Amino acid sequence: MPIGDPMRRIACLILPAFAALLGGPPAAAQVCTVSTAGTAFGVYDPFAAAPTDSVGSVTVQCQAAVAIGISYSVALGPGGSGNGAARLLRSGDSSLGYQLYSDAARTQVWGDGTGGGRAVSGLLLLTLGRLSLLNSLPVYGRIAARQNVAAGSYVDTIQVLLTY
């Protein structure tokens, strides 16, 4: 075939475009977000023999332009106490110790890798039929029993870090 043959010119244009498709998605082709539902403990009874438990959630949602597996990690900061091993709810000058866990048995402290706590990891597999998925992760909270505290509304703010 001569170099000026129209079929050869078309093949030269199609092959590089097809090769670009096989190269994988650009870095901006995936986006993940995080949302939360707080762990609300309700009324705490300082005379109760059992701890006060509650469940909140962290939801990870990822979208991609192509089918892809997206690995992610969710870390929970230490809160206002600055210590993930000894989180505190506060009301004025009073504080109430509590902890957040990644398991229902409340044995795995959910943290940021410091103070004995660790982040929670997962994988979302986005397929051609589902290019947007979410995963809701329960956050198990516990306030230890029999803490002597003043009446009040106790709060703490936890920073959530999503890495993907």
TrEMBL record:
This is SCPU domain-containing protein. InterPro entries: Spore_coat_component (IPR053167), Spore_coat_U/FanG (IPR007893). It comes from the Bacteria. It holds the Pfam family SCPU. The keyword Signal applies. Keywords: Signal. Residues 27-160 form the Spore coat protein U/FanG domain. PANTHER family: EXPORTED PROTEIN, PROTEIN U-RELATED. Transmembrane segments: none annotated. Residues 1-29 form the signal peptide.
